[in-house]
Amino acid sequence: MAFSKRSDKPRSRRLGGKGMQRILILACIFGVGAFGILFAKLWQLQVVQHETLEKKAISQQTREVSSTANRGTIYDTNGAILAISGSVQNVILSPRDILARVEVDETDEFGNPRSQTVIEADREQKIQATYDLIADGMSEILGIDRSNVLVRLQKTNSAYEVLAKKVEDDIADQVRAFIEENDLQGFIYLTDDSKRYYPYSTTASQVIGFVNGENEGSYGLEALYNTELSGEDGRTIFAKNASGKEVPSAYSSYSDAINGYNVHTTIDSTIQMLCEKTVEEGIRKFDVTNGAFCIVMNPKTAEVLAMVSYPDFDLNDPSAVVDVTEAAKLNKMKKNGAVTEEELADAISQAQFKQWSNKCLNTSYEPGSTFKPIVVAAALEEGVVCEDDTFSCSGVVNVAGWNIRCSARRGHGTQNLRKAVMNSCNPALINIGQRLGAEKFYEYWENFGFTDTTGIELPGEQKSVFWDKEEFVSPAGIASLATASFGQRFTTTPIQLITALSACINGGHLMEPYVVQSVTDTQGNVVSYHEPTEVRQVISQETSDQVRSFMESVVSGRNGTGKNAYVSGYRIGGKTGSSQTLDSEDHIIVSFLGFAPADDPEIIVLLAYDWPQPAAPGQNTTASGVYISGGNMAAPMAGSLIADILDYLGHQKTNTTTGTNGVSVPRLSGKTLAEAQTALSGLGLNCRTSGEGDVVTDQSPNPGSSVPKGSTVVLYMGTEKPGETVAMPDLSGQTYEEAKTTMEGLGLYLELGDSGTEGKVFSQTVEPGVLLDVGTAVEVKFSDNTDEAAAIGQSDFWKKLLGGAD
Hints:
By secondary structure, the protein is an alpha+beta fold. The strands form ten sheets. Strands 2, 3, 4, 5, 9, 17 and 18 form a seven-stranded mixed β-sheet that branches. Strands 11-10-22-21-20 form a five-stranded antiparallel β-sheet, sandwiched between helices. Strands 1, 6, 7 and 8 form a four-stranded antiparallel β-sheet that branches.
């Protein structure tokens, strides 16, 4: 039997070549596998998730804070600030940082490890204590609900929760002190922002407009010029340490905010406020229920100097309803349990929209007789009428079977063209319209710009509403031509009307109205500038001169419908208007368009009051006895406004005449009684004496006072004028004789205004109840009923189709 020979080599050596080879192969396989896994993980972290992880790291180690660019300033024509941005702060909360940075001890006081449950409970307690501290402090400083702060604190993934926006410096200082005192850096922080301020509150509110909570323009020029005004926000990125404090880092970067451009308007804030005062005074005086509007322009350039729409609103709080009547309605609804929240919200929205709407652009109304100068201008330009032409008015004219009445029920008789304009005679204007013809009438309607908007740089301008051309020029349009000739049954906007009428008096040039003069950058460099833009020449200089002369006669003539706009010392031209609307027999819009100086106009004014309330339905006077018409309401208010504007602009009066029936009391001190009596007698004044001296030592009323002829002057002979005072009476609605008797019974004197003594008291320069020295002369103006019949109580055709006259 044979046996194999046993090897004497060790086992390890026997496994030598192949065993080691296996081991190395396995090692390589495991090594490569492990490296592959590591490589894959690194690939995922460094490549696949690089951007995500980088953003996460940056967000944990840095904070980005934006800086709001200062919105550009809006100025009036003289550099007065109408809208400006101021620096404010936003208060920001970072719940994520609170959660990440609240630390608790992991060992007890003896150095022994604490259980995870205890640590977490302690952590939760400390976080809640921080929450309570912040909620208590911020609710007290910022005046916000504590629960609201707590809700925001629960958003633990957020580092940007806005607690308050646009806080003023005093509040911001309190927040900073609270952060410092309680070591809350990084939990609460402040960011720069800007807030819009409107120094003049309600002045030119619909023109300027306002911004929303994001500092973007929402209305008016703020919206239209939002891009220019906004600028470009800046950005700051800084690194933060574990405590949230800023530290130097390569991540830090700064981008400065670029402030917005400035807008320079043509609005003159002084003229604007004079207009607003006139509007508000007329609304109170005439019990106007549907607002009012007023525009002042330079007729040569069409730059708008003032634009008023009532009701207005406070630009610093545009959502608040400021009109007393509207606010009372809303308060009544709030107290009415039957009114739902939706109904109340809708009413508030409508009230806000009403006050935000600019009547000068958004309201299309029947202009009435203020349109008549345009018809006359077109007829003169076409040569179908001349100043010497005569027109017969019997008080009514029949057109297509309809009787159209004149404001003078008995008629104006035979009158030339100038007199027809002064009388605002409807039959005469109908005749002129017929001479012009429908085709030419429509041609001038287009040429004066009524078929398009004016192009003024304000949002929301409406177009005029007129008959379709084919309908208007057809034989069936004869009644439409008649009514259009005196400004009824079509509608236009105030800005459209005043622009067209400017062309009638400025030499015939239709100009494009504008409210922005220029835009400048922060260094004052002009970015854009608005030059006056002529659209077209509509009528000749000769025709314009004639129309301007006619319109001056309307005011200066003794029987002109605009005579209540007369102001001594100023040459004013104008045209009255009283138009009845279709929604109610009593709804009348009274207006006056005036300009001055009449020989070379520098301002043109359109003033209107919408719906003065009659004393009772169907009556033609207000409760205070004022006749409802443009001549009796808008004309005297506009006349005084024009005089105030001319005074402000530095115009000198052309003469110093007193009133038609007034005389100026001479200075009599130092004269003998005989000399004084002779001087007074020559002026138609009486006198009585007090004292027994030889010469006049004082007099009442004072020298220079304008009093009616027949008034009695008190001469103090060797004695002093007594220092007794009396209360000024309310003369509203009194005739001249009644007012004179009332005043003289108190030892006071009437000082006549420019209106003469006809009619009833329209205004007095001293309010009732004011204490005056005995002998004081008070200026009183009278307004007579220049319109024998307005739009009330006319025929069915007049009520339903034609409206009123003035």
